[in-house]
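**User:** You know discrete backbone vocabularies at least as well as I do. Would you mind producing a protein record, from residues through to fold? Write it directly below this note and I will take it from there.

**Assistant:**
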Amino acid sequence: MTLPQALPTGPQGPARAAAPRLAHAAAPARASLPLDPAGEDPDPGCALHQRIDEWILPLRAVGAARLDAELGARLQRIAPMEQCLCVLADHDCAGLDAMAPRLHGTMAPELQRLYATLIVERDPLLARAGQEWCALAGTIEQHCSWLQEHARNAEVIRAWLRRSGAGNLVVVPARGWLSRGAVFAFSARRPAESGVFALFYAAQRLAVTLELRYRPYTAELLAMRFTARERDVLRAGLQGAADDEIARRLGLSVDAVRYYFKRFKHRVPPAIGHLRPRELARIVHHLGKL
């Protein structure tokens, strides 16, 4: 499916999760949750970003029974929409037990499952949004035309979308530290560009918030600090070097190299303490700590 307009929302390519700059204003102290693996908010003085943080970050602690409704209500404050669906799946990070895609939003649960199958298997909309790192906006009819050609149960989805009153769809790519996904926003009217920009920022914050909700040990890993020598050893391990090769490269004894790996393993949260040091190092690398 090709939607008619890609709304640019940041630098091209998924290597950066930077949101566009919106209204600028002096802002008080912010919640200390980094936007992306670089830990960098592209616009720390943006008052709108602060308000979005105040709406999205508390979702980490909302009860499971209320999460979908709360997520929908808070996204509705950011951009008008009839229904929403947030889909997050694990990024390629060696060592972690893969979770099933996480689905949240006001879309009916049975349709969430249909969309999950569609998205995981072959949805070009999500793939294009992630590759181009921009929001894609189009009409529900265009979306349904693609569904009719490529998806089972397309009529069920078409009928539900029509009943919901949604005439337009925006797909916004989302990136956490260890997960990738998107927010699907279904609205009666085509959203304003400013609303799409705000939704892009919210999608990144939502990805990080839900990641911390499902993998709370991530916060502990982000707080870890390493000496220069520890970083050298762990980085060499990430490159696949054996202990003796690392020792020769860094001018250390093999026992010293093994000591650094052992000490690192003992510092990580117990929830992932069963993993091997090199697997743990890869996770920490995805978090931008190495």
About this structure: The first strand starts at residue 5 and ends at 8. Residues 23-215 form a domain with the Beta-Lactamase fold (CATH 3.30.450.80).
